[in-house]
Amino acid sequence: MSQESFMNFLVAARGDAALLARYNHRNLAQILFHAKNDGYDFTALDISDVVGKLEASVILNKDHDPFDGTSRLWQEMWGRTHLEYLVTYVLKRHTDEELRAMVSQQG
Question: Total structural domains in the chain?
Answer without folding.
Answer: 1
